[in-house]
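Dear colleague,

As promised, here are the two records you asked about, laid out in our usual form so they can be pasted straight into your sheet.

NAME FIELD: protein one
SEQUENCE, THEN STRUCTURE:
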Amino acid sequence: ARQTPVDRLLVASVGERRVAIPLEMVTRLEEFALDRFERVGSREVIQYRDQILPVLRLSHLLGVYGDEERESVPVVVYTERGRSVALAVDRIIDIVEDVVDARRDFGDDGLNGSAVISQRVTELLDVRRAIMAADPHFDLDTYREQGSDELMVGA
C-alpha cells in the first residue's frame, strides 16, 4: 500500500475565511497589542527582536475587511535568511496533520487553491507570494546571499 503524505498545517481565520499555512513556513506564533503596530510610508511594521518586521494583514491581501478592532492581533512570523515578515490573521484556529487530497486550484492571488482540511474547505496560502506582497524587496539579494546581519539604511 502506498503511503499518502500527511501535511502539517497551521489553520487560521481571516474574516469568515479559513486559511492554511504549511507549518514548516511558521517560525513563531505571536500576539501583539494593537498599539505596537506602526507605519513607515505606506507600510505597516512592528518592532520585534531587534528587527523592524513588515506586517502583511492577510485580510487586506484576501480582500476581507472586518469592522472589528481588537486590542491585540495574532501574527504568524515567517523567517528566511535572517529576515522576517509578520502575517497578521484574525485568529489561530489549530495546528493539524491531515492528508490534503481534495484540492482545487481556484483562488485569489496569494493562494495555492483550496482543500478540505479537518472536514472544512480551507484556502491554502502561498506564503512566498503573500510575503512578496508585504515586502517586494524580501527576495532581492537577501542580504547579498552572504547572510550578513547588517541592515542597509537608505538603500
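NAME FIELD: protein two
SEQUENCE, THEN STRUCTURE:
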Amino acid sequence: RDYAGDWSSDVCSSDLHNAALHTCQFQTLSDQGDPSMKFTEEHEWLREEGDEIVIGITEHAAEQLGDIVFVELPEVGTEVSKDDECVVIESVKAASDILAPIDGEITEVNEALVDDPVKINEDPMGDAWFIKIKPAEPEQMGDYMSEAEYRDMIS
C-alpha cells in the first residue's frame, strides 16, 4: 500500500485500527519531508523537477527578511556556477543576494515575482520560486540538507 498517496477506498472502509495505522505511517513519511527537496545553509530550497532544479527561499528566510519589495532575476540562458550571485531581493529590512547553489544554465525565471514581490512572503516554498536551472552536475544536490536536517539547523 502506498502510504504517501491519497487515502484509498479500502483504507477508508477499513476498521478504525487500520485507519489509525495508516495515519501514523503517513505522518511519519511526511515528517521526513519531500525527498526531491534539499536545503542550503543560506536558507534556499532546491527541488528536482525532471531534469531541472527549481530554486527559492525558505519560509524561515522570508520571515527574517520581512516584506519583500523588489526582486531582480537573471536572464534565461545565463550560465551560472555554484556561489554566483543570481537573484537580488530587497526587503524593508535588507537587500540580499541569492547565490546559485549549483552549476548550470538558467532555463526559466518566475517573472510574476518582479511585478508582485510580496508573493515571496505569501508562498516562499510554492509559487514564489525564483529560477529553474538545468544542472551541469546534478550530483551537487547531494551537498545539501534534507528537510529534517534543515529543520534541525533552524530550531
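A couple of things worth noting about protein two: The helical segments are 9-12, 16-31, 59-65, 112-115, 119-122, 147-154. Confidence is low (pLDDT under 50) at residues 1-30.

Best,
R.
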